Amino acid sequence: MKKKLVVLTGAGISAESGIKTFRDGDGLWEGYDVTEVASPEGWKRNSSLVLDFYNIRRKQALEALPNTAHKGLAELEQWFDVEVITQNIDDLHERGGSSKVTHLHGEIFKMRSAKSLAPSFEIKGDIHIGDLAPDGAQLRPDIVWFGEAVPMIEKAIAITRKADIFVVIGTSLVVYPAAGLIDTAPFHSKKFVIDKNIPSVQHVSHLITIEKPATEGVKELTGILKTML
């Protein structure tokens, strides 16, 4: 049987495909205050601004291409049972070839009623004010905003608990509950953190850090993992 390889990815893996994603720092996302475009309060204040913001993000995601880090994780499915848990809202993992992807924070190419979590609907174009869900409510991006519950976290925890190998790529491990997944991985599992700036992970057992961008880091990771077969 193939070993279970669980990978948690964040902004860093998509950044090399040209997608600028919010990182804790100046509180801005593409020049916007995140509280205005990525919170329930921002939605209530100015739904039009929020829709415009995500319409632009959707166009960016459509134009972006998977990079060698996305493709490298997909290639690891030859030797491992790979499951990707991503904080990213783009579909670059899927287009890069990964077959099992769980989106913790929603998906830019889905929309739903502002009143209900389900069902969701595919969307490649723009969402406008006045576009209504079947229940009569305004349609909104199917994205988890700051301050909202993370419906997929229980599934992600269940996946992580089965990991023989747990890898973190391109995330600062400051946004919870996603950041807590590394502590959910089995104590005996081999763990890797790949990032240009390694976060505080001194407490993590059986850990190897690779202080490189995602594309370079996944290449190095692949070489290490092949020695474990």
Structural notes for this entry:
With 229 residues, the chain is α/β, with parallel strands linked by helices. It is 29% helix and 21% strand. The strands form three sheets. A six-stranded parallel sheet has the order 5-4-1-9-10-11, sandwiched between helices. It has a three-stranded antiparallel sheet with strand order 7-6-8, with helices on one face. Strands 2-3 form a two-stranded antiparallel ribbon. Helix 5 packs parallel to helix 8. The model has no long low-confidence stretch (mean pLDDT 95).
> What is the CATH domain class of the largest domain?
Alpha Beta
Largest sheet: 6 strands, parallel
Q: DSSP strand (E) fraction?
A: 15-25%
Order of helices and strands: EHEEHHHHEHEEEEHEEEH
CATH architecture of the largest domain: 3-Layer(aba) Sandwich
What's the CATH superfamily of the largest domain, by name? TPP-binding domain
User: Mean pLDDT, as a whole number?
Assistant: 95
Which segments are poorly predicted (pLDDT under 50) over 5 or more consecutive residues?
A: none
Count up the domains: 2
Class derived from helix and strand content: alpha/beta
Radius of gyration from the CA trace? 18 Å
Measured as a percent range, the helix fraction is: 25-40%
Summed up, the helix count is 8
The end-to-end span amounts to 11 Å
Query: How many β-strands, per DSSP?
Result: 11
Q: Determine the CATH topology of the largest domain.
A: Rossmann fold
